[in-house]
Amino acid sequence: MTIEIASKVGPAQIDIAYERLGEPHAPPVLLIMGMGAQLIGWPDGLCAELVGHGLQLIRFDNRDVGQSTHLTGAPVPNMAAALAGDCSSASYTVSEMAADAVGLLDVLGIDRAHLVGASMGGFIAQTIAIEHPGRVRTLTSMMSTTGDRAVGQPNADAMRIFAGPLPQNREQVVERAKNAFGIIGSPGFPQDLEGVADRAGRAYDRSYDPLGIVRQALAVLASGDRTAGLRALGVPSLVIHGASDPLVDVSGGRATAAAIPGAELVVIDGMGHDLPRAVWPELASKIAALVLSDAGSSA
User: Fold this and answer.
1) Residue 15 lies in a domain
2) pTM of structure
3) Cβ neighbourhood burial of 18 (10 Å; 0-12, 13-18, 19+)
4) Contact 5/16 with Cβ under 8 angstroms?
5) How many domains are contained in the chain?
6) How far is CA 61 from each of CA 164, 250, 251, rounded to the nearest angstrom?
């Protein structure tokens, strides 16, 4: 793994850690991970499948996770107040995270990219497409939603993963990740708990910042409903969702696809809120088909 650091990225002038995979002249695909997840949240095997389809990948750490800038001097986030409707302690919004991603494209000299976002990464990808449409070739939104609180909500079991004290060491972080994926993982496919544990441990070693994750969560709560913006999109789009997703109900994926004109919806039976090894070939094939169908897919 060759991690590079882009400095003074976007309006916030922050550092963004990133990795490029595949041939440099292949169509550029920006992989955007979800809340609290680092660039290594994109499994290496799935990335290999995508590269095998002739794609160039850029995966990166969002602000406040991994080796990108952490806003440690920001006000302490008040999650209880935010859940009650007061988001005044939010340090930033999803729009600002979207601007970070566009700033990374600037640093890399990429005019327009194909976006693939998972979970909160889908919120960010959607926001880039809405607010920076000239930078987007195609949009893939995975296990995500529109921001409309009437859809895409977690069930009671999924909410349990946020309960209890925060882990204090590497062992506790790994154990919590395994327990969480036992709840939100894909019931229709074998669970790769060894892979979950490996990624959780590596993520801890790269950076462990619980408050950074809470700041990301507040950014989501402070950013509202994107449905109207999605209805105005003119970019080729793919929406992928697990039929058994307990964290972001499949209604969120259906609403996303319904809002984006011409979007293709793929609902995968047995898939939860993760990227199980068994679906990597299908995911890679679907994403690559969209990317390669774009007539102007070169960088």
Assistant:
1) yes
2) 0.96
3) buried
4) yes
5) 1
6) 26, 26, 28
